[in-house]
Amino acid sequence: MKKSKAETAETRRRIVEIAVREFRRNGIHATGVSEIMAAAGLTHGGFYRHFASKDQLVAEACAASMESLVQTAEAAAEGGTEAFLNHIRDFLSAEYRDDRLGGCPLVALGSELARADDDARRAASNGFRGLIDVISEYFDSEEAKGGAIFTLSAMIGAVTMSRIIDDPQLSNQILEEAKKRLAGLPTETAGRRRAAAGKSLPNGQTANAPLEQ
Q1: What pLDDT digit, counting tens, does each position of 35-66 carry?
Q2: pTM beyond cutoff 0.85
Q3: For the CA atoms of the chain, what is the radius of gyration?
Q4: Where are the domains of the chain?
Q5: 201 backbone φψ class: left, alpha, beta (φ>0; ψ -120 to 50)
Q6: Span 53-197 CATH architecture
Q7: How far apart are CA 132 and CA 118, in angstroms?
Q8: Which of 104, 152, 110 is nearest to 131 (CA)?
Q9: Torsion angle, CA of 13/15/19/21, rounded to 10 degrees?
Q10: Is the pLDDT of residue 208 over 90?
């Protein structure tokens, strides 16, 4: 019996969702189409009714994963400055580092995405731009984009290195140093308060204070 368009779309969505998980677990190159389809309870041959190639699946999986990451950042941003600072602290935590099947695809798959085709790299790039837009809202206008790029690069780099390092103490220290050296985001509101009266952020820390747990 022929499947409805809704059923076909749901099957495609499920394949992408499983691909995201399996790529994070084993890496893009080490994960075959047959493994993904088996995990989805589908036949290998059925793959090509949904995707032209594995490269297309990689691009869609990257796009879906980055979209989820941006949505999470946006939700935190809507909660205000303290909620967003907590989002950054959570990113730079041991729990986030140890969650190999979740979190940021740029951390989990960065080196492989750098060697991926144009579509996958475009999906990663568009997601990164989305994150820049979210974080830029928290910086004074004159430093918004640069500050957002630095913050994201420091966050992604710190978690990546903390996963690579085999010394647990050094791995934890990398995360802690990133939190200490990423100053509290100088928002436009905080910037005006700082310039006018040197007042603190709502949680009592100054706009230049470290991100402490």
Answers
A1: 999 999 999 999 999 999 999 999 999 999 99
A2: no
A3: 20
A4: 53-197
A5: beta
A6: Orthogonal Bundle (1.10)
A7: 21
A8: 152
A9: 70
A10: no
